[in-house]
């Protein structure tokens, strides 16, 4: 339907022009007639012949561009249309150049942009249809590939179309081609007047999904200069730093926000979460060392002499490493607890903060339970068990508050089920198990 509209637009324009001309080129008339009859190759041949006979006449180039555009729009395979659109654009550019040298330019020259926009609409709308309309998507094997091909044509015709670049980025994202999604989104930002913060966030997300956190960080650092108070940009930048393995940078940029506005609960929540995540990364190394210690202790039961001594030496070294790691973990989690408590003081209805506090206390309890299990001193084991259960009760209190605020969150109830079970609270454990959807 759109192709017919473009054709009527072009024919209508040319008819008005020819009727108003004092003289007419028969080759131009031939090109116009062939366009009307949808014989685009013949129209192109007539336009080319007109150019040969009168290379300074802008109308020959104009009709050449029209014929090329119509021929491109008529292609079943949109990939075969791209080069035709490139040639169309070149012909239109030459038409404008030739017209600028004349005392009075033909009316058609002023309408080139309108005609070009018609072809752009055709390609853009076809792309959107293949990506969104189920009835059309089902008629082809790879609808998103066709959508991309049509959008490539749209951006060839109108390289400054922010809308087409934006949609192209979204469709590449749907195809999970994050590299090309980032390329299209970057182009969208370049041509868009005053892009919003969300545009930069989306570009950074594509880079991160493509395992390019360095590029994501660069984008977000630039975006932060434009939107210094946008918490989402800061959090995304912290995520990028974390993906790069630079936890200290991730924490530092959120700390800056807290220093500027210490009463802002969102900033405190973000910082508390970052501190906890940094502790978790260290915890994984701690747990690996703990597993090695356990395995070595098991092997030592059958070892003697130098072999046993060597194993003990390895155990001592691992325990020394874990003591340092434990100190780092405790320092980070204690800081996280401060920030999260500040969050709930200023925003007492924030379930995420309570849940994160519950996780921290539960993890602290798990560490002490591990220590209890590895000691052979019964009295020490009893003391450690008491400490761990006290921390579990703190975890329970925070999980219960989170579940109270967001009762439909099954993860909160799963956490409560684990804690209730560990504390021997069987009735509550059964209730939590049901609400967690585990029965």
Major sheet attributes: none
Helix content: over 70%
Counting helices, strands and paired strands, the structural category is mainly alpha
- How many beta strands in the DSSP annotation? 0
The end-to-end distance, rounded to whole angstroms, is: 56 Å
Question: How many DSSP helices?
Answer: 21
Task: Name the average pLDDT.
Answer: 90
Taken as a percent bin, the fraction of beta residues is under 5%
* Overall geometric form: elongated
Which parts are unreliable, with pLDDT below 50 for 5 consecutive residues or more? Answer: 1-5, 12-23
Give, in order, the helices and strands.
Answer: HHHHHHHHHHHHHHHHHHHHH
The Cα radius of gyration reads: 34 Å
Describe the 3D structure.
Helices cover 81% and strands 0% of the residues. The protein has 439 residues and is mostly helical. Among the domains are: 1-110, no CATH class; 256-395. The longest helix has 42 residues, at 305-346. The protein is built from 21 helices and no strands. The relative contact order is 0.04.
Summary tags:
439 residues, mainly alpha, elongated
């Amino acid at each position: 339907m759109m192709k017919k509209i473009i054709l009527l637009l072009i024919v209508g324009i040319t008819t008005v022009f020819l009727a108003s001309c004092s003289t007419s080129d028969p080759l131009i008339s031939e090109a116009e007639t062939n366009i009307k009859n949808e014989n685009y190759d013949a129209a192109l041949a007539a336009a080319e012949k007109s150019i040969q006979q009168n290379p300074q006449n802008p109308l020959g180039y104009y009709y050449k561009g029209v014929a090329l555009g119509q021929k491109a729009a008529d292609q079943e395979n949109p990939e075969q249309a791209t080069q035709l659109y490139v040639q169309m654009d070149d012909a239109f550019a030459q038409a404008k150049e030739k017209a600028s040298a004349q005392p009075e330019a033909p009316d058609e020259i002023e309408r080139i942009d309108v005609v070009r926009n018609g072809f752009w609409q055709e390609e853009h709308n076809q792309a959107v249809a293949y990506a969104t309309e189920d009835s059309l998507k089902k008629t082809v094997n790879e609808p998103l590939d066709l959508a991309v091909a049509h959008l490539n044509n749209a951006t060839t015709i109108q390289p400054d179309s922010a809308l087409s670049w934006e949609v192209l980025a979204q469709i590449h994202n749907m195809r999970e081609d994050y590299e090309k999604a980032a390329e299209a989104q970057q182009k969208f930002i370049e041509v868009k007047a005053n892009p919003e913060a969300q545009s930069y966030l989306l570009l950074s997300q594509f880079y991160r999904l493509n395992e390019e956190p360095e590029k994501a960080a660069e984008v977000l650092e630039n975006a932060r200069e434009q939107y210094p108070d946008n918490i989402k940009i800061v959090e995304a930048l912290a995520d990028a730093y974390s993906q790069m393995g630079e936890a200290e940078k991730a924490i530092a940029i959120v700390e800056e926000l807290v220093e500027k506005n210490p009463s802002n609960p969102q900033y405190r929540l973000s910082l508390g979460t970052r501190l906890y995540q940094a502790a978790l990364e260290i915890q994984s190394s701690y747990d690996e060392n703990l597993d090695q210690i356990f395995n070595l202790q098991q092997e030592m039961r059958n070892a003697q002499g130098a072999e046993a001594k060597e194993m003990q030496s390895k155990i001592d070294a691992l325990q020394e490493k874990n003591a340092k790691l434990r100190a780092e973990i405790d320092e980070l989690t204690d800081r996280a607890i401060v920030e999260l408590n500040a969050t709930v003081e200023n925003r007492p209805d924030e379930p995420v903060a309570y849940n994160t506090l519950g996780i921290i206390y539960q993890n602290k309890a798990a560490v002490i339970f591990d220590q209890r299990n590895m000691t052979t001193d019964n009295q020490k084991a009893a003391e450690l068990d008491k400490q761990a259960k006290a921390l579990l009760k703190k975890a329970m209190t925070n999980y219960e508050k989170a579940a109270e605020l967001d009762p439909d969150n099954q993860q909160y109830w799963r956490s409560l089920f684990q804690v209730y079970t560990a504390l021997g609270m069987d009735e509550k454990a059964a209730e939590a198990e049901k609400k967690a959807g585990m029965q």
